[in-house]
Amino acid sequence: MTTERIDYFVQKYSEQYENVEIKRYYGAELNPEIFVNELVANSLFNEHKIIIIHQMEQIEKKVWTEYIFPHLEKISDDMLVIFEGLSIKTKPVGYEVETVQDAENLFRKIYQKSWKKNLTARDIYEISKFLKTNPYEFSVVIGVIERHLENLVMQKAISQQTFLNKLQNLLEIDFKLKSGRISNEPGWELLLLRLLDVSS
Hints:
By secondary structure, the protein is mostly helical. The protein folds into two domains: 2-83, no CATH class; 103-194. The chain is 48% helix and 10% strand. The longest helix is centred in the last third of the chain and has 20 residues, at 160-179.
């Protein structure tokens, strides 16, 4: 997955240099002026910096052409900038783009988990990794868990009442995520453990 690839670059860069500062941004809430300042500003405490921008498909073409590309050419050798996402809204000229995994396959992989009789700790881990690169796709995961619960009750692995109770809790989590009462940043998925019997 893309997270593993990013972790690889971060580890290699951190092994090469000491005092590395790591910052993360998300395309859906990226402020282009703040981001540009981040690119050109020197760190007070760290000699080297890694900037990771997730959800680059959420960044508008104008932001790419007017803010990002012109300043990427000026960044120092002490900085590593990584963009990650499902797609990009403008063609990057002069930059190498690495395709790690097809987005449709990634979504399919997560969806297929809904057909398993039992979601294991490994499944929850993979869902968590998915959310780290797609933190606003919580509706996809909610749908996966809902289908999983439906399968359990159809297979008579849980009672109808247990299903209704778990479904009610799931819908409450969904509502709180959409209303902002629960942050949709990575970490919220731990609430799902209360709904699932997860084996180690």
